[in-house]
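Hey L., structure's done. Input below.
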Amino acid sequence: MLHEIPLVGMVAVRVLYFKGTICLLRRYYRFVVMAGVISGLVGCVSPIAMDHAVIGYDRAHAQIQTQLLLLNIARARNHMPIHFTAVPNVAATFDFRMNAGLAREPLRNGGGGMALALGTSVAENPTINIVPIQGEAFTKRLLTPMDESKFEFMAHQGVDIGMVLRLMVRAILIEKNGVRTIFHNDARHIKEFQQFRRAVFHLAALEYAGVLDIGPINYDRQWSISGRDPSMDELLKIAERGYFWTTEENEKIFSKPVRGRILIANFDPNTLSNFERRRLDKKARQYPNNFILVDIRPGYPGGEFPIQAWIKLRSFNAVIEFIANSMHSYPEFRVEKDPRSGTIPANPVKTLEILESSEKPKNVDFFVEYHSAYYWLADDKSRHEPDISWNQEVFKLLYHLYQMTVMDVTHVPGLPISIAK
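Output:
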């Protein structure tokens, strides 16, 4: 049975259906737009949160290292053993989430409406590994004297060589007329300490004048052979091992470049003959790698104060003990440079001045508390020459030594302590 539907009715049905479709499309469009806004918001929040977290961890890690250094100086000041704890890595997991939903909400004038609920969340889960420096690692990194490679590295960082020598050197062994005398970098030995400082001032003056050479003694190890010429295969094998050869008259001379020991001199050792450089290196090798040969010769800049000596490097533990002893037990005292020495950049009394008080300090960058006393770095502005940040530079040098000797614990055997938050 067929029923006729009036045209007006059909138009009305189609209009109502079209209007409903428009409403649904509008709601869907609004939802999509808001979801896109939230997604963009999460995308903006995540890098900002990570930036703050990474910078925060970096600041906290640096603060821990500086305070550990200061804390161990305080321990040594109170005649207690030093101890370091390294933080080789910090792993953090970040969880960024977005949630959205629709909920029916009654209106004041009756009826109901739809409410859009949006939200974001950020979660952080750090894991910190702590490695105590103990056992063989403690002995190797803290008690073993530093070798010449560390001294060479520090000497080429652009800081005053006087800082490096005063901090790293235990003593100078002077050789004069076949007699060796030891000048200790220790204020308890007054005359020896004065001689040590004067020798250091002279080296610092030469470095300030740009005439001090610090570097390895490079020479060629040579020997000659006679007879037939080597074949091409033999020459290739010789070249692969770092050798080269020359012919002088009827002799064939094989040579190999050698990097010798470190030398501190007022001349360029490369201007010497190969024989003289070999002899210098042999002289430098009379002592282990924590000794460095010093050769300040007459006839060169600064030669009016000649020095034939070896400097003996400290261990990192001895560096900390030296700074602590200067606070109370054996304080450093002022020594003037030798009249034969030139201009030196600075001459503060103490190599690194650490202050101690029973009252909490104010307006300082950092401090530590130990045995009811506070310790912090002295202010350069009121204690040394203007425009010279001696204390800050020496503490930075101490921090670099700490990184070179103590902090390389990634491959040290042991059980790390993990702390998860």
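The chain is about 40% helix and 30% strand. Residues 1-21, 409-420 have pLDDT under 50 and may be disordered.

-- N.
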